[in-house]
Amino acid sequence: MLWSLLLIVPGIIKSYSYRLAFYCLMDDPNLSPKEAIQKSMRLTVGHKLDFFVLDLSWIGWAFAATFTCGIGSLFLIPYTRLTDYIAYRAISEQSLDLSEEETFDKETYTL
Fold it and tell me: For this UniProt entry, which segments traverse the membrane (predicted)?
């Protein structure tokens, strides 16, 4: 039974790596699907646990949506997608700021 978790847990972790691919394509439609997945994997490095905790925060709402025979999902799904998009924007801006700092440092120290 424990060995079966080796197939499930890495799959869940990998799904967090691919989570932002749709938003990468939305942000830059010229990306190929493979490039969007690669960009998503780069953006989620160090943030997979944050997304997991974010998903845990939705459990109560998911149960409430289930008890309403799915009607609550009409409100829950757009709300969770908007939260994912806001997280994508924050992570992409953070990575953009870091890359600009690295470029600035390189220009400062080169003669």
Answer: 58-79
